[in-house]
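Lay summary. Proteins are chains of building blocks that fold into shapes, and those shapes determine what they do. In this project we predict the shape from the chain. Here is one chain we studied, written as its sequence of building blocks.
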Amino acid sequence: MADPPLTVELVGEGAAATLVGGKGANLDQLLTLDLDVPATGVVTTAAYHRLVTHPELADLLETIRAGTVASGDDVDAAFLAVDLDTATTFAVLALARAVAGPDSHLAVRSSATVEDLAHSSFAGQYRTRLHVDPRDDGAVLDAVRLVFASLWHPAPCAYRRAMGVAADTAAMAVVIMRMIPARRAGVVFTTDPGGRPDAARIEAVDGIGET
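And here is the predicted shape, written in a compact code that computers can read:
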């Protein structure tokens, strides 16, 4: 059996959530509906697993799984101290340039395998990095590792425990999307979180979503 790919470009062919995470799988599903999705690829959970088997990270993550709370800064520093292996590095940089095209920057976004489940929402728990320059290799690789790291920040770890999501089932993929010059950004809730069962809710802001 062939090893799973370290990166994939999304083309609407049914990418599995176990490989590309929840957000990646949903974006791929939108492509099957012929909707206008910016050029998108994913650094897969296979790449994540290759990184977190590094002894320095494996030891840290084992202590977190056992209940130790590590600060977000400490987790970030640990992930940034470990380099992606050569094959993953080449694959990530090639994907970043392919997705960005000649003039665009990138959005580097979390896509966890335990995200937006039927009984829980991880909105805002994980990291997004915007306006990443695809020509800056260090910035691209740092952004990917910091998104990986956010799986193990204190807030999502606590939320997973509260929701009964086992720590050893969690993995992180990283969505890499072409940035677009948005005039507005928003979210459509198909079920109103305010409680009206017969209504959807649309929330929007000027500019990009981080505002």
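What the prediction tells us: The helical segments are 17-32, 45-52, 55-65, 72-80, 86-100, 137-150, 154-163.
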